Each structure stands twice: as C-alpha cells, then as structure tokens.
Amino acid sequence: MGKLIFLVLAIVIVWVVLKNLAKARRRDQPPRPPAAEDMVRCTHCGVHLPRSESLLTQGVYFCSAEHRRQHESGRDAR
Ligand SMILES: [Zn+2]
Q1: Chain centroid to CA 60: how far?
Q2: CA–CA separation, 23 and 7 (whole Å)
Q3: What per-residue confidence (pLDDT) applies to 17?
Q4: Is the model's pLDDT at 69 over the cut of 90?
Q5: Of 74, 70, 68, nearest to 56 (Cα)?
Q6: What is the pLDDT of residues 30-54, one digit of tens each?
Q7: 36: CA distance to ligand 1 center in Å?
Q8: How far is the CA of 72 from the centre of ligand 1 (A)?
C-alpha cells in the first residue's frame, strides 16, 4: 500500500513539473505586439492602419507610397 501511494505521488510530481516546464516555455516566447496600437487614417483613401505601417509626410499619414504620390499630385493639380 505504501508503495502505491509513493507511485501516485511520484506521478503527480512528474506531472506538475512537466506542466510548469510547459508554462515556462510558453512564457519564454516573445509577446505579441499589443493589438491596441495607435491607429492613423490615410489622408488619401481614409483607411485606418497602425501608425508603424503608415507613411508620415509633413504631418499627414498615408497607407502607401502610392497614395502619398496621388495625394501630392492631386493637390498640385488643383
Ligand atoms: Zn490610402
């Protein structure tokens, strides 16, 4: 009977150690960038995109170099 209790205890301890290892490994992974990043609006098409993916030109945000070019040429034409 004592042997059985020891066996069960050993299994539980191994299980707890493995669980903690898995948890620690998950914690080591780099955290995902926060979803609530600053959003900016493309001045040309109005689409919202993360600030880190936008192009900032003279205090105005654009979603792509193409829209920056179109916006600038459109402004020049008028
Ligand atoms: Zn755009």
Answers
A1: 25
A2: 24
A3: 93
A4: yes
A5: 68
A6: 766 656 778 999 999 999 999 999 9
A7: 21
A8: 12
